[in-house]
Design brief:
311 residues
Length: 311
């Protein structure tokens, strides 16, 4: 009796079923494709719901009046529908917010990526991103009950509702967005570029300003545009802190009404469904959607045009 000492052939132990494998792969591809289409279908549904009601609104209100009137009084006996009033208020708070978030977020990103020790960075970055998890209604009451009274010590004519405190707190709320995305963009710059700058005699500051930041510019700009889009669509902070007075002004010390604040006001249920005032919230929402879409398209174009590619 002879006993073979050679190991068994692995192929004889298990043979894959190639036909079943191709079938499973095809099913997986269809499942993943279905999940991808959910977001597309959701976006399409949002656009259609806004567009249909917006068309009904413009059947009564001429689009030229909507774009050029300087008063917004849709709930008055003599209604006026000048979107410029809400447009100016929305951009006023967004400009104040990005003026706060850009320096705070960018300097925080530079410190985290270039100066902070690894152990400190390990704690600082999650602590900074905790701000992103704070409910916006909390930020709104923080602006109304703490920031506004504090500012009134230095600005006596500051109103109880104003764009300044709303914009400042809105800027703090979007700072983690700028800081996190900018830090990722800076961290993605190859270390060889920084070492090359040091080899040429640059200081750390000169390497950051002259090499690292220009190399990460596309990511930094994309984070800022995304933060602006986030600020334009913010609701609770501006509703609670900026007020609900539709004034065509760029004065940050007076009450204003943003696009989202108006949508909240009408959506409370006091306005009859199907009325022109009710349909106006869809026109405002469509306007806000188009503005945000323009910013996102610009961000996509800027990133593709100015993105640095490294081998």
């Amino acid at each position: 009796m002879t006993i073979s000492s050679s190991p068994p052939d692995p192929s004889s132990l298990w043979k894959p079923n190639r036909k079943a494998s191709k079938y499973v792969q095809r099913v997986v591809v269809w499942i993943f494709g279905a999940f991808a289409l959910v977001s597309v279908a959701t976006t399409f549904g949002i656009i259609m719901s806004l567009m249909l009601e917006t068309i009904n609104f413009f059947k009564t209100v001429p689009i030229w009046r909507f774009l050029t009137d300087t008063q917004w009084t849709p709930l008055f006996s003599n209604p006026q529908y000048g979107i410029l009033v809400l447009f100016s208020a929305t951009f006023l708070t967004a400009i104040i917010a990005i003026s706060v978030a850009l320096p705070l977020g960018l300097f925080s990103a530079i410190y985290l990526s270039e100066y902070a020790p690894p152990q400190l960075r390990k704690w600082l970055k999650p602590a900074l991103e905790i701000l992103a998890g704070v409910p916006t209604v909390v930020f709104g009451y923080f602006a109304l009950l703490l920031v506004t009274p504090f500012l009134q010590f230095f600005i006596p004519n500051l109103g109880g509702f104003n764009a300044l405190s709303a914009g400042l707190v809105l800027g703090v709320s979007i700072t983690p967005l700028v800081a996190s995305l900018s830090e990722d963009a800076i961290y993605a710059v190859p270390e060889s570029l920084q070492k090359g700058a040091y080899a040429l005699g640059c200081t750390k500051r000169e390497a950051i300003v002259g090499v690292i930041l220009p190399s990460a510019l596309s990511g930094i700009v994309a984070s800022c545009i995304l933060a602006i889009s986030r600020a334009l669509g913010e609701t609770m902070i501006v509703t609670l802190a900026a007020g609900q007075n539709p004034n065509l002004t760029l004065n940050p010390l007076v009450p204003i009404m943003t696009m989202t604040a108006y949508i909240v006001q009408v959506s409370l249920g006091d306005t009859p469904a199907g009325s022109i005032a009710f349909l106006s919230i869809f026109a405002v929402g469509m306007t806000l959607f188009i503005i945000t879409l323009i910013f996102n398209i610009f961000s996509f174009w800027f990133v593709r045009t100015f993105r640095e590619k490294y081998e």
